[in-house]
Amino acid sequence: MRIGINGSGLLANPDLAAFKADLTSAESDGFGSYWLAQTGGVDSLTVLTAHGDTGSAMEVGTAVIPTWPTHPQVLAGQALTAHAAVGERLILGIGLAHEPSVTGYWKLTWERPVRQMMDYLDILLPLMAGEQINHDGHFWSYQGAIPRFGESTPKVMIAALGEQMLRLAGSRTDGTILWCVGPKTIEQHIAPKLNDAADKAGRDKPSIVCSLPVWVTNDAQPARDFIAQILAIYAELPSYRAMLDIEGLHGLGDLSLVGSAEEVADGIGRIAESGATDFTAVPMGGTPDEIAATRQALVAAQ
Questions:
Q1: Cα–Cα–Cα angle for 167, 48, 99, rounded to 5 degrees
Q2: Could you list the pLDDT tens digit for every one of the 302 residues in the chain?
């Protein structure tokens, strides 16, 4: 299992120099991937493009870009441009977001989300592959083709939790990017459905990217309480609530990897045994010593 960094913890106080420094640090530490969410005023593809092609083999990915506000042809062009700019190591992670965001922030209608993603892929994937398309969909339509930067195409993964989305991810994409999902849920729910769909479609085994907060500390309970408080919304959103129920836990305070370096290493080991192909940590800490210890534990886990 590869170990990566999820830099989305920096989104609360966005600073481009801080993002670039974090990316450089992750490359220097030998991590396999670096991920950034698309939220608030930060455009994840632009941040990754600003970091550029450093000659590193570390993959860089979006976790995730919501599909509802952006036409798939537009995102295809953005992704191809970013892929070229970062040295052809982009993973384009996309997702449906959640009904409160779609109806509340963007004032759009939330309906038939799986159909929406199917429509999106029907345009996004062939356009990025250089194909001419004529797609008339329920949500998204497009006729034509787009020029590309060379022949390389980014990997595409979707945020998938429910059975229909997992089967879509396995049959048509390179895998799934997870949040609020633990090892029991990966082993019993995510991996079987995703891998079965890929196998039936004749595709390579898909990636399962598990992302959770990680915090090395000698005083675990206050750290768990803090995580539970700042990430409380995820215990309420229906799609995440269903995953936490499978795990038998209430929220991110319980699910996060918090404790000694040995306890964190054991937690990463359980995720590897569950069938995950990648673990991407959101590093946390209450003091500089804890932040350094968390980073050391993640480097050691590679």
A1: 45
A2: 999 999 999 998 999 999 999 999 999 999 999 999 998 889 999 999 999 999 999 999 999 999 999 999 999 999 999 999 999 999 999 999 888 888 888 898 889 999 999 999 999 999 999 999 999 999 999 999 999 888 899 999 999 999 999 999 999 999 999 999 999 999 999 999 999 999 999 999 999 999 999 999 999 999 999 999 999 999 999 999 999 999 999 999 999 999 999 999 999 999 999 999 999 999 999 999 999 999 999 999 99
| 15 to 21, 54, 204, 205: CA distances (angstroms) | 10, 20, 38, 37
* CB atoms near residue 204 (< 10 Å): 9
Q: How many Cβ atoms sit within 10 Å of the Cβ of residue 248? A: 10
Helical (H) or strand (E) element with 208: strand 207-216
Angle between helices 72-85 and 113-128 (to 10 degrees): 50
Question: How many residues in the chain?
Answer: 302
Gap between the Cα atoms of 225 and 244, Å rounded: 17
Q: 1-157 and 160-287 share one CATH topology?
A: yes
Annotated domain spans of the chain: 1-157, 160-287
Nearest by Cα to 159 from 207, 108, 100: 207
Rounded distance between C-alpha atoms, residue 124 and residue 133, angstroms: 10
Structure-token match 């994937």, residue found: 125
The strand pair at 278-283 and 155-158 is best described as: unpaired
H runs (alpha helix) in 161-212:
163-172, 183-185, 191-200
Q: Classify domain 160-287 at the CATH topology level.
A: TIM Barrel (3.20.20)
What does pTM read for this prediction? 0.96
Residue carrying structure tokens 């890929």: 198
What is the topology classification, in CATH, of domain 1-157?
A: TIM Barrel (3.20.20)
